[in-house]
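hey can u check if this looks right to u? its 398 residues, i copy pasted from the old doc so theres a chance i mangled smth
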Amino acid sequence: MLLPYASDYMPTRRPVITWALLFLTIFLTVLIMLSDRFGGQWNQNQILTLMGLVPAHFNPINLLTYPFFHEGIGHVLMNAFYLYVFGAAVEEAVGPWKFLSWYLLSGVVGGALQAFVTITFLPASAYIPIVGASAACAGLVGIFAVRYYRARLSFIGLRYRPHVVAVVALFLGVEIVSGFWHILAGSTAGGIANWAHVGGFIFGLTGAQLLHLGEDGQRAYLSSDAVHAMDKNRPGIAIKRWEMLLAKEPENATARAELARAWLLLGDSEQAINHYQHSIQARLQKNERNEAALLYAEMRENNLKPPPQPTGQLFILGSALEDLEQFDLAAETLRSAATRDPRSPATESAMLKVISMYVHQLHRSEEARILLRVFMERFPHSQWSSLAEDLKKAADQG
């Protein structure tokens, strides 16, 4: 049998649940092998009969236990290959706990289907325990094929790297044909639970559709295609991909910012400003103040003049720039906020922030003294008068 050992998708997070399942499955297999070798109250056949799925003595609990037990090291390593190759990517796509749920449920559905087929059509095999994680792994393969539908797989002994959708279609077709052949022959040749594989596959494919993983994959591929196009200095292609992504996610702030950069490369300042503005607004709506401020700074660095901003928004951007220690632009932005609407509640705070930066960070004492006089005239009864006095003393000393 050809075994996959890699796909062209590399997870960015540590697949904790995948590694835990691998460890537990291999550990239990080795444990029952040792119990058989060294003797004791339980031998391997007894443990597999107890923990495996025996259709003639159907126990729902065994639908959860049978995937963790295998007949020998070759059996467990074959399934470990599939769990290793597909598990990490699926875990990253759906999250660790959903991943564990779908893994177990794939095993449950696959085992239930195999038990039903065995009892109904293959009663002679109904007393043979069904063990192994192949149905659960088949579910992972189905989910992987929907989410990472453009992936290619590497197989031991095969130089060509086939497309994952072709592999899944081939495997599913072979399992269905083999399953019907065994029904006609009246036996499960070689002890292979074909219908468990089929059930796991179909459940995984169905689960991926319910989780909209195909749409997630499409958005991810559009994003990666756009980034690749920008790396190749093809902003026109990148713009098309980002616009396709925005049609699906109108509030995608990252796509908006990348569109702005692409239009800037093409020399269209108006489009660049428009998308920068939308991206900044989207970041602020998510309370991502620093990210919004960095986009605003980027826009100004590219000599793009933004349209008039609301006073409150300028205050937020200026304050975030101050936190990011971009004091020149922070002071300019906050000063614009202070002069834009003198009656705004933010004006008083904005002026004090500008004065403080002029005194302590930018060493522009003369401008600080001028602003202080304006502040005292405009807000003679300010609750921050003592702070203004301290700033005046510091400015005079500077």
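The chain has a mean pLDDT of 91.
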